Protein backbone atom coordinates (compact mmCIF):
# COMPACT_ATOMS: atom_id res chain seq x y z
CA UNK A 1 0.00 0.00 0.00
CA UNK A 2 1.64 3.31 -1.01
CA UNK A 3 1.96 5.96 1.64
CA UNK A 4 -0.28 8.34 -0.28
CA UNK A 5 -3.21 6.06 0.53
CA UNK A 6 -4.79 7.16 3.77
CA UNK A 7 -4.51 4.37 6.36
CA UNK A 8 -7.37 3.33 8.58
CA UNK A 9 -6.68 4.81 12.01
CA UNK A 10 -8.82 6.20 14.78
CA UNK A 11 -9.80 9.67 13.54
CA UNK A 12 -8.64 11.45 16.66
CA UNK A 13 -5.20 9.90 16.44
CA UNK A 14 -4.24 10.55 12.86
CA UNK A 15 -3.97 14.33 12.66
CA UNK A 16 -1.76 15.46 15.50
CA UNK A 17 -0.01 12.30 16.49
CA UNK A 18 -0.41 11.26 20.10
CA UNK A 19 -2.19 14.33 21.33
CA UNK A 20 -3.83 17.57 20.28
CA UNK A 21 -1.84 20.78 20.65
CA UNK A 22 -4.94 22.84 21.39
CA UNK A 23 -5.01 24.50 24.79
CA UNK A 24 -7.68 23.07 27.15
CA UNK A 25 -10.40 25.62 27.81
CA UNK A 26 -11.50 24.48 31.29
CA UNK A 27 -9.91 23.04 34.40
CA UNK A 28 -11.68 19.72 33.86
CA UNK A 29 -10.39 19.57 30.30
CA UNK A 30 -6.95 20.43 31.65
CA UNK A 31 -6.94 17.49 34.04
CA UNK A 32 -8.09 15.20 31.23
CA UNK A 33 -5.30 16.55 29.01
CA UNK A 34 -2.76 15.74 31.74
CA UNK A 35 -3.51 12.04 31.26
CA UNK A 36 -2.77 12.18 27.50
CA UNK A 37 -5.97 10.24 26.62
CA UNK A 38 -4.91 9.53 23.04
CA UNK A 39 -1.85 7.66 24.24
CA UNK A 40 -4.10 5.69 26.60
CA UNK A 41 -6.31 4.73 23.67
CA UNK A 42 -3.30 3.29 21.90
CA UNK A 43 -2.25 1.31 24.97
CA UNK A 44 -5.70 -0.18 25.44
CA UNK A 45 -5.84 -1.32 21.81
CA UNK A 46 -3.27 -3.97 22.74
CA UNK A 47 -4.75 -4.95 26.11
CA UNK A 48 -8.09 -6.51 25.19
CA UNK A 49 -6.72 -8.72 22.36
CA UNK A 50 -4.05 -9.99 24.74
CA UNK A 51 -6.75 -10.88 27.27
CA UNK A 52 -8.67 -12.75 24.57
CA UNK A 53 -5.57 -14.77 23.61
CA UNK A 54 -4.88 -15.52 27.28
CA UNK A 55 -8.45 -16.73 27.82
CA UNK A 56 -8.76 -18.54 24.49
CA UNK A 57 -12.03 -16.63 24.07
CA UNK A 58 -13.76 -13.68 25.68
CA UNK A 59 -12.90 -13.13 29.34
CA UNK A 60 -15.71 -11.90 31.57
CA UNK A 61 -16.85 -8.42 30.62
CA UNK A 62 -16.36 -7.38 34.24
CA UNK A 63 -12.70 -8.40 34.15
CA UNK A 64 -12.18 -6.57 30.86
CA UNK A 65 -13.79 -3.44 32.31
CA UNK A 66 -11.74 -3.59 35.51
CA UNK A 67 -8.51 -4.09 33.55
CA UNK A 68 -9.26 -1.26 31.15
CA UNK A 69 -10.26 1.15 33.90
CA UNK A 70 -7.30 0.26 36.09
CA UNK A 71 -4.90 0.34 33.16
CA UNK A 72 -6.25 3.68 31.96
CA UNK A 73 -5.89 5.28 35.37
CA UNK A 74 -2.36 3.93 35.78
CA UNK A 75 -1.30 5.16 32.34
CA UNK A 76 -3.04 8.49 32.91
CA UNK A 77 -1.23 8.98 36.19
CA UNK A 78 2.13 8.18 34.59
CA UNK A 79 1.44 10.61 31.76
CA UNK A 80 0.48 13.35 34.22
CA UNK A 81 3.70 12.85 36.16
CA UNK A 82 5.58 13.06 32.86
CA UNK A 83 3.93 16.40 32.14
CA UNK A 84 4.87 17.58 35.63
CA UNK A 85 8.51 16.67 35.00
CA UNK A 86 8.62 18.06 31.46
CA UNK A 87 6.80 21.33 32.03
CA UNK A 88 9.99 23.33 31.46
CA UNK A 89 10.85 21.81 28.09
CA UNK A 90 7.18 21.63 27.06
CA UNK A 91 7.18 25.44 27.11
CA UNK A 92 9.94 25.44 24.48
CA UNK A 93 8.24 23.09 22.03
CA UNK A 94 5.56 24.16 19.57
CA UNK A 95 3.80 20.80 19.87
CA UNK A 96 3.49 21.00 23.66
CA UNK A 97 3.37 24.71 24.48
CA UNK A 98 -0.39 24.61 25.20
CA UNK A 99 -0.26 21.85 27.80
CA UNK A 100 -2.10 22.82 31.01
CA UNK A 101 1.03 23.09 33.16
CA UNK A 102 2.67 25.38 30.62
CA UNK A 103 -0.31 27.70 30.29
CA UNK A 104 -0.85 27.81 34.06
CA UNK A 105 -4.34 26.33 33.84
CA UNK A 106 -3.33 23.76 36.48
CA UNK A 107 -0.65 24.25 39.11
CA UNK A 108 2.27 21.80 39.28
CA UNK A 109 1.36 20.83 42.85
CA UNK A 110 -2.23 19.99 41.95
CA UNK A 111 -1.09 18.07 38.88
CA UNK A 112 1.25 15.92 40.94
CA UNK A 113 -1.40 15.22 43.57
CA UNK A 114 -3.83 14.29 40.80
CA UNK A 115 -1.29 11.96 39.17
CA UNK A 116 -0.37 10.14 42.37
CA UNK A 117 -4.06 9.77 43.27
CA UNK A 118 -4.71 8.12 39.91
CA UNK A 119 -1.89 5.65 40.56
CA UNK A 120 -3.21 4.74 44.02
CA UNK A 121 -6.75 4.22 42.71
CA UNK A 122 -5.47 2.23 39.72
CA UNK A 123 -3.45 -0.10 41.93
CA UNK A 124 -6.44 -0.68 44.20
CA UNK A 125 -8.82 -1.38 41.32
CA UNK A 126 -6.48 -3.85 39.63
CA UNK A 127 -5.63 -5.63 42.89
CA UNK A 128 -9.26 -5.92 44.02
CA UNK A 129 -10.82 -6.58 40.62
CA UNK A 130 -8.09 -8.62 38.90
CA UNK A 131 -5.10 -9.71 40.97
CA UNK A 132 -1.98 -8.46 42.73
CA UNK A 133 0.32 -9.39 39.82
CA UNK A 134 -1.62 -7.22 37.37
CA UNK A 135 -1.59 -4.32 39.83
CA UNK A 136 2.16 -4.61 40.38
CA UNK A 137 2.87 -4.77 36.66
CA UNK A 138 0.86 -1.60 36.04
CA UNK A 139 2.74 0.15 38.85
CA UNK A 140 6.07 -1.06 37.47
CA UNK A 141 5.27 0.54 34.11
CA UNK A 142 4.64 3.87 35.83
CA UNK A 143 7.85 3.68 37.85
CA UNK A 144 9.85 2.80 34.73
CA UNK A 145 8.26 5.56 32.68
CA UNK A 146 8.83 8.18 35.36
CA UNK A 147 12.26 7.31 36.72
CA UNK A 148 13.98 5.60 33.79
CA UNK A 149 12.49 7.45 30.81
CA UNK A 150 11.30 10.85 32.04
CA UNK A 151 13.91 11.63 34.69
CA UNK A 152 16.93 9.89 33.20
CA UNK A 153 16.90 8.89 29.54
CA UNK A 154 14.75 11.49 27.82
CA UNK A 155 17.17 14.39 28.31
CA UNK A 156 20.39 12.41 28.28
CA UNK A 157 20.38 9.66 25.65
CA UNK A 158 19.46 9.10 22.02
CA UNK A 159 18.21 5.70 23.22
CA UNK A 160 15.53 7.43 25.28
CA UNK A 161 12.50 6.22 23.38
CA UNK A 162 14.08 2.81 22.68
CA UNK A 163 14.55 1.83 26.31
CA UNK A 164 11.78 4.02 27.67
CA UNK A 165 9.33 2.47 25.25
CA UNK A 166 9.29 -0.64 27.42
CA UNK A 167 6.81 1.13 29.69
CA UNK A 168 4.31 1.29 26.84
CA UNK A 169 4.66 -2.44 26.27
CA UNK A 170 3.66 -3.42 29.81
CA UNK A 171 -0.15 -3.21 29.24
CA UNK A 172 -0.02 -6.54 27.37
CA UNK A 173 1.56 -8.10 30.46
CA UNK A 174 -1.12 -6.52 32.64
CA UNK A 175 -3.87 -7.88 30.38
CA UNK A 176 -2.42 -11.39 30.38
CA UNK A 177 -1.83 -11.38 34.13
CA UNK A 178 -5.37 -10.14 34.78
CA UNK A 179 -6.73 -13.27 33.07
CA UNK A 180 -4.24 -15.93 34.16
CA UNK A 181 -2.53 -14.48 37.27
CA UNK A 182 0.74 -15.55 35.66
CA UNK A 183 3.04 -14.82 32.73
CA UNK A 184 4.28 -17.11 29.97
CA UNK A 185 6.25 -16.84 26.73
CA UNK A 186 3.30 -15.46 24.73
CA UNK A 187 2.77 -12.22 26.71
CA UNK A 188 6.51 -11.60 26.79
CA UNK A 189 6.62 -12.00 23.01
CA UNK A 190 3.73 -9.55 22.65
CA UNK A 191 5.66 -7.23 24.96
CA UNK A 192 8.60 -7.54 22.58
CA UNK A 193 6.34 -6.61 19.65
CA UNK A 194 5.36 -3.31 21.26
CA UNK A 195 8.93 -2.68 22.36
CA UNK A 196 10.28 -3.10 18.80
CA UNK A 197 7.38 -1.17 17.26
CA UNK A 198 7.88 1.92 19.44
CA UNK A 199 11.16 3.29 17.93
CA UNK A 200 10.09 3.41 14.26
CA UNK A 201 6.64 4.59 15.30
CA UNK A 202 7.88 7.43 17.48
CA UNK A 203 10.86 8.39 15.34
CA UNK A 204 8.49 9.00 12.42
CA UNK A 205 6.70 11.54 14.61
CA UNK A 206 10.02 12.93 15.84
CA UNK A 207 11.15 13.55 12.25
CA UNK A 208 8.16 15.85 11.88
CA UNK A 209 8.97 17.65 15.16
CA UNK A 210 12.77 17.43 15.23
CA UNK A 211 13.13 21.21 15.46
CA UNK A 212 11.05 21.16 18.63
CA UNK A 213 13.32 18.60 20.22
CA UNK A 214 16.39 20.55 19.18
CA UNK A 215 14.97 23.74 20.69
CA UNK A 216 14.26 21.93 23.97
CA UNK A 217 17.64 20.20 24.05
CA UNK A 218 16.10 16.73 23.99
CA UNK A 219 18.39 14.27 22.13
CA UNK A 220 15.64 12.49 20.25
CA UNK A 221 17.43 10.60 17.47
CA UNK A 222 16.03 12.56 14.47
CA UNK A 223 17.15 15.85 16.07
CA UNK A 224 20.77 14.80 16.62
CA UNK A 225 21.58 12.18 13.96
CA UNK A 226 21.76 12.31 10.18
CA UNK A 227 18.59 11.38 8.28
CA UNK A 228 20.41 8.33 6.88
CA UNK A 229 21.22 7.05 10.37
CA UNK A 230 17.66 7.60 11.55
CA UNK A 231 16.13 5.70 8.64
CA UNK A 232 18.68 2.89 8.97
CA UNK A 233 17.75 2.51 12.63
CA UNK A 234 14.04 2.56 11.81
CA UNK A 235 14.52 -0.14 9.18
CA UNK A 236 16.46 -2.37 11.59
CA UNK A 237 13.75 -2.13 14.25
CA UNK A 238 11.00 -2.71 11.68
CA UNK A 239 12.71 -5.85 10.38
CA UNK A 240 13.08 -7.11 13.96
CA UNK A 241 9.43 -6.25 14.60
CA UNK A 242 8.20 -8.20 11.59
CA UNK A 243 10.36 -11.19 12.58
CA UNK A 244 9.01 -11.12 16.13
CA UNK A 245 5.44 -10.89 14.85
CA UNK A 246 6.00 -14.10 12.87
CA UNK A 247 7.47 -15.90 15.89
CA UNK A 248 4.10 -15.28 17.60
CA UNK A 249 2.51 -17.77 15.19
CA UNK A 250 4.06 -20.95 16.62
CA UNK A 251 4.41 -19.67 20.19
CA UNK A 252 0.80 -18.54 20.56
CA UNK A 253 -0.53 -21.20 18.14
CA UNK A 254 -1.98 -18.64 15.76
CA UNK A 255 -3.57 -19.67 12.48
CA UNK A 256 -3.96 -18.11 9.05
CA UNK A 257 -5.82 -14.90 9.96
CA UNK A 258 -3.01 -13.64 12.15
CA UNK A 259 -0.31 -15.16 9.94
CA UNK A 260 -1.50 -13.44 6.76
CA UNK A 261 -2.06 -10.18 8.63
CA UNK A 262 1.44 -10.24 10.13
CA UNK A 263 3.05 -10.81 6.75
CA UNK A 264 1.01 -8.22 4.83
CA UNK A 265 1.02 -5.52 7.50
CA UNK A 266 4.69 -6.08 8.26
CA UNK A 267 5.59 -5.89 4.58
CA UNK A 268 3.73 -2.60 4.17
CA UNK A 269 5.32 -1.13 7.30
CA UNK A 270 8.80 -2.09 6.12
CA UNK A 271 8.15 -0.78 2.62
CA UNK A 272 6.86 2.50 4.03
CA UNK A 273 9.92 2.91 6.24
CA UNK A 274 12.24 2.33 3.29
CA UNK A 275 10.18 4.74 1.18
CA UNK A 276 10.53 7.42 3.86
CA UNK A 277 14.28 7.19 3.38
CA UNK A 278 13.83 8.21 -0.25
CA UNK A 279 11.53 11.14 0.54
CA UNK A 280 12.08 12.52 4.01
CA UNK A 281 9.47 15.22 4.31
CA UNK A 282 7.37 16.06 7.39
CA UNK A 283 4.25 14.98 5.52
CA UNK A 284 5.72 11.61 4.54
CA UNK A 285 6.91 11.07 8.10
CA UNK A 286 3.44 11.72 9.50
CA UNK A 287 1.87 9.33 6.99
CA UNK A 288 4.22 6.60 8.17
CA UNK A 289 3.46 7.54 11.77
CA UNK A 290 -0.26 7.21 11.06
CA UNK A 291 0.22 3.86 9.36
CA UNK A 292 2.26 2.61 12.30
CA UNK A 293 -0.85 3.11 14.46
CA UNK A 294 -2.91 1.21 11.90
CA UNK A 295 -0.28 -1.53 11.87
CA UNK A 296 -0.31 -2.24 15.60
CA UNK A 297 -4.09 -1.85 15.85
CA UNK A 298 -4.85 -4.24 13.00
CA UNK A 299 -2.22 -6.73 14.10
CA UNK A 300 -3.83 -7.04 17.52
CA UNK A 301 -7.30 -7.18 15.97
CA UNK A 302 -6.01 -10.10 13.90
CA UNK A 303 -4.86 -11.80 17.11
CA UNK A 304 -8.40 -11.52 18.45
CA UNK A 305 -10.09 -12.77 15.29
CA UNK A 306 -7.67 -15.68 14.98
CA UNK A 307 -8.73 -16.99 18.39
CA UNK A 308 -12.34 -17.32 17.20
CA UNK A 309 -11.74 -18.94 13.80
CA UNK A 310 -10.22 -22.15 15.13
From TrEMBL:
Molecular function via GO: protoheme IX farnesyltransferase activity
Transmembrane segments: 61-85, 106-126, 132-153, 160-179, 185-206, 230-250, 256-276, 288-309
InterPro entries cross-referenced by the UniProt entry: Protohaem_IX_farnesylTrfase (IPR006369), UbiA_prenyltransferase (IPR000537), UbiA_prenylTrfase_CS (IPR030470), UbiA_sf (IPR044878)
Keyword Cell membrane part of the UniProt annotation: yes
Primary location group: membrane
Subcellular location(s) of the protein: Cell membrane
Pathway, per record: Porphyrin-containing compound metabolism; heme O biosynthesis; heme O from protoheme: step 1/1
GO cellular component terms attached to this protein's record: plasma membrane
Record-given protein name: Protoheme IX farnesyltransferase
Keywords recorded for this protein, A-Z: Cell membrane, Heme biosynthesis, Membrane, Transferase, Transmembrane, Transmembrane helix
Signal peptide: none
GO biological process, one term: heme biosynthetic process
Membrane topology of the entry: Multi-pass membrane protein
